[in-house]
C-alpha cells in the first residue's frame, strides 16, 4: 500500500519549470529521502505534497487524498516540519504543544511528545530561551503531536552541529519504529544514507536516480578502487598483472580501479603472501553516495 | 460545531497570552492612552464645565478609550499578523487542520477583547480619579458602538497587515495612518473649531465616527438612548456613525481577504528576521 503516489508532477512559474515531470511512490512505513542541491525542486515537490502549493500538472495522492482539495481531514493525518523554525518566542514549550494538540482529533499526549523529542527539562521554558537545536526539536514535536500517518521533514537538520544532527537522526529513527511514513528532503548525503530506506536524487526538477542508499546510481556495481603501498625496491614487473599499471614508481603507491575487486584482491594478496610482504595502507573503496550524487547532479554544490 | 467553538476560545486565549507576554504591545494598548489622560488633565486642567456639571475628563476619557481600542485592534493586529507571517507562523498554521477562519477569528476576538479591557480600564480610571460619570440611559448604545468600532478597526488592521510588505514596516505604517487621523478625529483635541476641510476629512474616516458614537454617550448635554439614525439638535444618535464604521469594516475585510497571504514574503526584512530567530 502506497502512502504517497505521484505521477507526471509538473510545476511551472511562468515559463520556468521548477518541477519538470516527477513520478514517485512511497510505501506505508517507508522512510524516503529526496536528495538534491538547492533549487533542484525538492522543496517545491514537498510543498505540493503538503498542500502548500498548487501543481501545474500531474496527479498527486497522499493517503488517498489530493492535497489541494483534502482540506481539514487530510491535514489531520499529516505532520509538517517546515525548513524554517516558526515559533512564538514568548510562549512555553508545553503551551504551544497543548494548543496544537487541540487542533487534532486524535493527538498524542503532550508529555509523551515532549519525551520523544527529549525536551522534558524544557517543558516550561519559553521558546526564546531554547537553543536553535532545541527549537528544531520543538518543531518536530509539533509535526508529530497530531499522531500523523505521514510526516514531511523539509531539511530537518540544516544548520545543525554534528552532535545535534546525530540526535535528530535517532529521533527520526524512533518515528520509523512507530511505523510512520516519512518523506524528508536533505542535501546531506550521510543523512540520506543513515535514515532513508530509499533515496531519489533530484536535479533540475527531475529525478535523475532512485534506489536504496546502497545501490543508487549503480553504486553497488560500480568500479571499486584498491590502494596499497609497496617498497621502493619493487618494480612494476614484479607485481601481479592486475596491479602493474597502477604503480607510481616514485613512492611505491599502487592505485587500481576494478569492476571485479574480489578477484583482483585475491591475486594481490596471494602475491604478497608468497613473498611474505605486508601491504601497507591496503584499502578497498566503493564510490561514496557523495561521489554518485556529485556525478548525478553535475558536480556543482549549488544547482 | 461545539469543537470549533472550543477551538475559537482556545485561539483567543493563545493570542491573549502572547499579548500579555509582549510588554511593548501591552504598554501601547493599555498604558499609553492613560498617559494621555494624565497629561491632558495636567496641562489643561480638569475643571468643571458649569453648564453641564461635569469635568473636562468626561470628554477626554471616552475619546482616549476609543484611541486605545484602535491601538488594540488596528495597530496590534497589523503588527502582530505581519510579524507572524514573516516568522513563518502563518504558513505553519495553514499546514495544520485548524480552519483558517478559526485562526483569524481567534486573532480578531483577542484584539476586540483587549480593546474592551483597555476601554474599561480607561473609563474606570476616569470615574475613580477624574470624576467621569457613566450615564445608564446610553450605556447599551455605547457598548454596541464600542464593540462594532473595535471590530471594524480589527478588519482594517488585517487589511493593513495584508498590504504591508513586512513586519518591520508594519509599526511605521500603522502609526503613520492612525495618528494623523486621530488628530482630525476629535481624539486629542476636543471641542475645537477646525477649518472646514479638516472637518470634512475627519468625517470621511471611521475614527471620528467611533469617537462620536461612543463619546456622545457620556455627554450629559445630549438626550436620548442613542438608538436612532441621525442626531437632531442636542440628541445622542449612533445609527449614521455605525453605518460609516461598518462600511469601513466591510471594505477592510474584503481587501484583507483579497490580499492576505499565509506565506512569508520574500523580502530582505523577512529573511533577516527569520534567520535571527532560528539562529540563536
Short characterization:
The complex is a heterodimer of chains A (303) and B (280). Chain A has 9 helices and 13 strands.
Structural notes for this entry:
The complex is a heterodimer of chains A (303) and B (280). Chain A has 2 domains: 2-213, Rossmann fold (3-Layer(aba) Sandwich); 224-285. Chain A is 29% helix and 27% strand. Chain A is built from 9 helices and 13 strands. Chain A is elongated. Chain B is mostly helical. Chain B has one domain (2-275). In chain B, 71% of the residues lie in helices and 4% in strands. In chain B, the strands form 2 sheets. A two-stranded antiparallel ribbon of chain B has the order 1-2. In chain B, helix 2 runs antiparallel to helix 3 and helix 3 (57-87) packs across helix 9. The longest helix of chain B has 31 residues, at 57-87. Chain B is elongated, with a radius of gyration of 20 Å. Chain B starts with a helix and ends with a helix. The model of chain B is unreliable at 267-280 (pLDDT under 50). The interface between A and B is medium-sized, with 31 and 28 residues.
Largest inter-chain contact set: A-B, 31 and 28 residues
- The computed structural class of chain A is alpha/beta
Mean of residue pLDDT of chain B? 91
Number of domains of chain B: 1
How would you describe this structure in keywords?
heterodimer, A: 303 residues, alpha/beta, Rossmann fold, 2 domains, six-stranded mixed beta sheet, four-stranded antiparallel beta sheet, 9 helices, 13 strands, B: 280 residues, mainly alpha, two-stranded antiparallel ribbon, two-stranded parallel ribbon, 71% helix, elongated, disordered C terminus
